[in-house]
Amino acid sequence: MASVPRPRQVQVAVVDWLDRRFPFTSSVDEALYQRVPNYANAFYYCFGGMTFILIALQLVTGVFLAFYYVPDVAGNPAPAYTSVQHIMKDVYLGWLVRGVHFWAANLLVVMIVLHMARVFWTGSYRAPRELNWMVGVIMLLVVLAFSLTGYLLPWDTKAYWATSVTIQIIAGTPILGGLLQSLAQGGPTLGPATLQRFFTIHVFLLPGAILLLMYVHFRLIRQHGISEPM
Ligand code: HEM
Fold first, then answer.
1. Is residue 55's pLDDT more than 70?
2. Site to substitute for ligand 1 among 217, 219, 222, 224, most atoms within 8 A of C-beta
3. Cβ neighbours of residue 96 under 8 Å, at least 6 residues apart?
4. DSSP per position, 103-162
5. What fold is seen in the domain 43-224?
6. Is the pLDDT score of 4 beyond 90?
7. Radius of gyration of the chain (CA)
8. Rounded Cα–Cα distance for residues 174 and 53 (Å)
9. Rounded to the nearest whole angstrom, what is the distance from the C-alpha of residue 148 to the centroid of ligand 1?
10. pTM of the model
11. What is the C-alpha separation between 132 and 138, in angstroms, rounded?
12. What is the CA(103)–ligand 1 centre distance, in A?
């Protein structure tokens, strides 16, 4: 009688089958296992990794919120406000997911600043890592754009007036102020078109940008390794 294959044998057979078609095992090994210098054990080397974990948490909680959040219906922005109330009051653990998204967003900005301070303090922005520093600066701007666009989404009074102040600041830009203001607003006043625009930027454009930039950031770290202490 043919014996029933054990789970471990099935696992090995599946991995072998996949590896013959694409080198999955060696790619995962290459991605996960890398010797790091001993001094990288110091607590201040963890800020970059913490930033990464917080961004991952934002992406996951953001997707859950997007299951229930409605920016507007046929140009009427009221559902933005009511859907957030619905998430807070009726959706199972909605208050927790929204709370984590909110607090992790705040912590993320703190963590990036700490990470930047570490990179600056250890002089790791110097050759050959200048390009990675520049990529980092763009990521910082992307994270700030996340905060700015996300702030309007609950569509309550605080969100509305805070964003109107931000747009006034943008409008004060020399020469390009008017153009930037109408681009951000999507019209002559802050209204449903602004909300639709901020929502699209917040959930499509910026997540795509941050994922791409993190990929470049990590490839460059792999390329140069963690910097030597000064
Ligand atoms: C926004 C998200 C960011 C993530 C997820 C991130 C993540 C990381 C990680 C995991 C490392 C490995 C070493 C460590 O953890 O300290 C690292 C290194 C580095 N990061 Fe970032 N980082 C971010 C933003 C920034 C910013 C804003 C800057 C500077 C403006 C920056 C510049 C650098 C540089 C130059 C290195 C190489 C440091 C070395 O070799 O010692 N990063 N980053």
1. yes
2. 217
3. none
4. HHHHHHHHHHHHHHHHHHHTTTTSTT-HHHHHHHHHHHHHHHHHHHHHHHTT-SHHHHHH
5. Cytochrome Bc1 Complex; Chain C (1.20.810)
6. no
7. 23
8. 38
9. 22
10. 0.92
11. 10
12. 21
